[in-house]
Amino acid sequence: MSNFDVLEEAGELTRRGQPFALATVVWRQGPSSGQQGSRAIITAAGELHGWIGGACAEPVVIRAARQVITEGVPRLLLLGTPDQFGAAVPDGMTVVPIACQSEGALEVYIEPVLPAPHLVVVGRSPMVQTLADLSRALGWRTSVLDRGAFSAADADESSMVVVATQGHGDEAAVEQAAAARPAYLGLVGSARRGAAVLGYLQDRGVPQDQLDRVHVPAGLDLGRTSHREIAVAILAELVQLRASGVIGPGAATAASGGAGALPGEGERAAGVSPPGRGLAGAGGSGGSPPGEQSGGSPPRASTDPVCGMTVTADASSYPLEHGGQTYHFCCAGCRRSFQEDPAAYLKESRC
């Protein structure tokens, strides 16, 4: 491959979001088959495209390039015989002795070319918009999806996913996100709300190792904050985790924990067994989710007898029959709380 072909290949890998390293010969001492300005691409799998030198240099450069991709830190290599350079090696340069019969030498600069961090935010709110705007200002690839449009296919193991559906289908969104096993999965909501969501998903059979990776509440604990400030707390946590190597290049394990809850949600701590239907969106603060009823009539509103939240009286709001009447709930946790002690809530029911 010519240098031009190498650059074209680099552009194509970048468009596909694949990490690679770009190696450039910046100095040579003859005799050496590598020429000053020669370039090559090394993929994360160790494939080399281009030319930087012969049989002595190539394996060393490939090995170093794979480390550069993993660590995300460039490296300057000086390749030669052990006694060739003496004390004349500049600071910051890595000397790699190679036993080449030609006794040539190469100086190779290897730089990582990593895809921009991928953030997926599920939900719609001023907080979501602020988080998206801030992350894009950092050069991140950011997608904002409504809860009904999001699926596991929208994320991968390198993605960061923040579920901010405000009680409107948290369970379904977290279940889909967990299936993708992203580098980070955060749920915006209080600890009690998070416990209810995770308990429900546990009862549904979602693997525990997936649930253990959920950060809830999402974001650094900055104390009492506004919705938009919660976006700052979440982004700060993501930047912190990437900087520490917990997620992103070189990450060994996913971190857990975090803080930054949305105020004003009516949550319950316990999980709930699935109410005999597929997982669907639940109502939450700030309005009722859309629903359909036979004959095209508008959905009927109901009040959650546990937290007093207004919900849509349809299959999406966790219906439960008790005493000949059907009650509807904002979330799985409220449903379970009612199911365990209906009398405690019927006194205050406004249904």
Concise overview:
This protein is α/β, with parallel strands linked by helices.
Overview features:
Rossmann fold, alpha/beta, five-stranded parallel beta sheet, 3 domains, six-stranded mixed beta sheet, 351 residues
Topology:
Layout: H1 3-15, E1 20-29, E2 39-43, E3 48-50, H2 57-71, E4 75-80, E5 94-97, E6 105-113, E7 118-122, H3 126-137, E8 141-145, E9 160-163, H4 170-179, E10 184-187, H5 191-203, H6 208-211, E11 214-215, H7 227-243, E12 301-303, E13 310-312, E14 320-322, E15 325-327, H8 332-340, H9 342-346
Parallel strand pairs: 4-5, 7-8, 7-9, 9-10, 10-11
Antiparallel strand pairs: 1-2, 1-6, 2-3, 4-6, 12-13, 14-15
Describe the structure.
- By secondary structure, the chain is an alpha/beta fold.
- The chain folds into three domains: 3-113, no CATH class; 118-243, NAD(P)-binding Rossmann-like Domain (Rossmann fold), CATH 3.40.50.720; 294-346, no CATH class.
- It has helices at residues 3-15, 57-71, 126-137, 170-179, 191-203, 208-211, 227-243, 332-340, 342-346; strands at 20-29, 39-43, 48-50, 75-80, 94-97, 105-113, 118-122, 141-145, 160-163, 184-187, 214-215, 301-303, 310-312, 320-322, 325-327.
- A six-stranded mixed sheet has the order 3-2-1-6-4-5. A five-stranded parallel sheet has the order 8-7-9-10-11, sandwiched between helices. Strands 12-13 form a two-stranded antiparallel ribbon.
- Helix 4 crosses helix 5 (191-203).
- The protein is elongated.
- It starts with a helix and ends in a 5-residue tail after the last helix.
